[in-house]
Amino acid sequence: MASSSTFFLLLGILMVIRVCGSANDHPSTSIAVDISEPRQIPPTFLGIFFEEINHAGAGGLWAELVSNRGFEAGGRHAPSMINPWGAIGDEEAISIVTEMSSCFKNNPVALRMDILCDPSTCPPGGVGIYNPGYWGMNIEQGNTYKVVFYIKSTGPLDSVVSLVTEDGTQVLSFRRVTADAAKLKDWTKLEIALQARASYNNARFQFTTTQKGTIWLDQVSVMPNNTYKGHGFRNDLMQMLLNLKPRFLRFPGGCYVEGTYLRNAFRWKETVGPWEERPGHFGDVWGYWSDDGLGYLEYLQLAEDLDAEPVWVVNNGISFYDQVDIRLIGPFVQEMLDSVEFARGSPNTTWGSLRAKLGHPKPFNLKYIAVGNEECGFKNYIGNYLKFYKALKKNYPDIKVISNCDATWRPLDHPADLYDFHKYTNISGMLGLTHLFEKMRRDDPHAPKAFVSEYAVTYPEEKMMNGTFGGALAEAAFLLSLEQNSDVVEMVSYAPIFDNLNDRRWNPDAIFFNADKAYGIASYWVQTFFRESSGASLLKVNFPNHTLPNTHLTAISRTNSIDQKDYITVKVVNYNNITVTLKLSVVGVDPNSVRLQSKTVLTCDDLDADNTLDFPTKVVPVSSLIPSEVGKHKVLVVEPFSFSAFNITLV
Ligand SMILES: *[C@@H]1O[C@H](CO)[C@@H](O)[C@H](O)[C@H]1NC(C)=O
Ligand SMILES: *[C@@H]1O[C@H](CO)[C@@H](O)[C@H](O)[C@H]1NC(C)=O
Ligand SMILES: *[C@@H]1O[C@H](CO)[C@@H](O)[C@H](O)[C@H]1NC(C)=O
Ligand SMILES: *[C@@H]1O[C@H](CO)[C@@H](O)[C@H](O)[C@H]1NC(C)=O
Ligand SMILES: *[C@@H]1O[C@H](CO)[C@@H](O)[C@H](O)[C@H]1NC(C)=O
Ligand SMILES: *[C@@H]1O[C@H](CO)[C@@H](O)[C@H](O)[C@H]1NC(C)=O
Ligand SMILES: *[C@@H]1O[C@H](CO)[C@@H](O)[C@H](O)[C@H]1NC(C)=O
């Protein structure tokens, strides 16, 4: 037990850094951390599950500003709807239709504009079309925007491409674009750089002219020049992912992989190659069109840029409503084998050569394949799964195969390296899961490991729209149990990761964003507490938990790559409305050499508190150094309803 003066000193420090909350009684116990038998936590422990849901990719992480750039979203028909494109000028001045006249055979729809006015009769700003992007384009002063489009014209071109405010009244950047009739007789690609003179977060792209005649447009792209490493990822969103130090990236779904119907499922071969030639597709589960700028190669690049291992979820011939017969699944298996060859085959293989041609000769480090998503109960699942499994093990024996069947419920009746575990529940359900994995059998070292690939507190739905601090605290307790049981749990990812605030199809999500802002909910910040866990050593803790209910803790050690010193981190969830004090000892170590150095605390006295666009940092972790005199006493003071990480050094 700490002396009372120490306690008050500690309390004083706490008061300074507390966001909210109040201390009541403080039950105390001792914990003994034993460094003699460390067990390595899997190097892939904490990762990200990225699904194309809520416009996470199209209109999110993928920085393309034009929505429906090839006019294909309305279907392969003419006439077709061209939303969100709109007309500039009335019907007497310009007629706009779609035609099946594109120069790209995979995406045949193109836009045709008949300009009926001339310089003397057109409105002063000209007539044409605009694209507002995904709920407004974020244009930043000084930044350059690369505009690319394909164009054909019956006469000479005299036009203006511009970035303007949402009503067109203010011009942020423009360029006059002219060309001879001869040059545009056939489809021609034009590229223009626009530099923004002002910032505006609800801008649109415009193409206008006052020249009478007919102009066709197709595959119109506007890309900011400041994407992450120039790879097309929106920088602020990328930074939020990097901040988690994810060690794997599961993609591209989820249900997105399955489709409501197979005809709308994700087909990787239709998402690679020049962006202009990609057909795009309607993701029928989440109900929106994707131009597939973020395709299979970009997902692999994303994993590489995050220094995360790709976990490729393949469609195994099953959607919500249809299932390919086991006898006929062969071509789907081949699609998967081709995708692996594309990712990691040498440049002299069929698909590896395509990857090299597209600019990435070095193979990607693809070692995980998930066969389907949440389909264990489907009639053909096991039969199809086994065909995928056998083909993978024959051709790529080092690839780890992930089954959809939950082995916490009963042992699998089929071979697998890992099994998916998904859980969306309420707070008490999440807290109840903290004992699930300690009950798993340990007698078979070859038994498949758990991949907790989707988890979140989501109920009650209305209350959990934005997540809550209480929900995140329950998730923290669950994550501590996974860390504790990481001999049988190899990987974990929260779901979903992203949500565009303009298209909230699933709630909550770790990161909310709009065109120019992004923030994490409490569940996002909880994950940051585990970013050092992957590959660290789990230490034994002697902790008489019966005296302190609703308290969860782990201890890990790791070597700091910067100063090469060993740190012990004790993480504690206190799900009580009462302060808890833990007297720490480190077994077999001179007590004088043990120092509490710093701590990071996520807390709030309102369990229902959430982060929102207007108040994005209500619930965020606060880090502080512990003064060396106080640190000597080794009393971990854990605030009511808090998640705390204490850094300990051995000096
Ligand atoms: C983007 O373009 C602007 C203006 O040309 C330039 O100042 C800036 O350095 C560019 N940014 C990147 C990341 O290339
Ligand atoms: C492809 O190249 C690798 C070395 O990069 C070589 O070992 C292999 O034999 C080649 N395969 C073919 C089919 O040429
Ligand atoms: C939480 O979920 C569990 C399991 O689904 C359910 O039994 C329980 O009634 C729920 N509790 C509340 C408070 O809604
Ligand atoms: C204490 O921990 C043991 C082993 O981890 C567990 O079985 C038990 O349910 C825990 N007790 C409480 C009150 O949490
Ligand atoms: C915790 O206790 C304080 C003081 O009794 C009370 O005001 C507060 O509402 C309690 N918080 C919760 C979440 O129960
Ligand atoms: C622990 O210390 C390391 C090295 O100084 C630092 O990177 C890390 O953020 C600290 N963690 C906490 C929980 O304070
Ligand atoms: C949820 O977040 C949205 C967007 O930040 C905000 O408009 C809304 O008020 C929040 N709802 C609650 C219940 O806090």
UniProtKB/TrEMBL annotation:
Keyword terms of this UniProt record: Glycoprotein, Hydrolase, Signal
Species in which this protein is naturally found: Spinacia oleracea
EC number: 3.2.1.55
Chain ranges of the Alpha-L-arabinofuranosidase C-terminal domain: 453-642
Classification of source organism: Eukaryota, Viridiplantae, Streptophyta, Embryophyta, Tracheophyta
Record's protein name: non-reducing end alpha-L-arabinofuranosidase
PANTHER family to which the protein is assigned, alphabetical: ALPHA-L-ARABINOFURANOSIDASE 1
Family membership: Belongs to the glycosyl hydrolase 51 family.
Signal sequence residues: 1-22
SMART domains xrefs: Alpha-L-AF_C
Catalysed reactions, semicolon-separated: Hydrolysis of terminal non-reducing alpha-L-arabinofuranoside residues in alpha-L-arabinosides
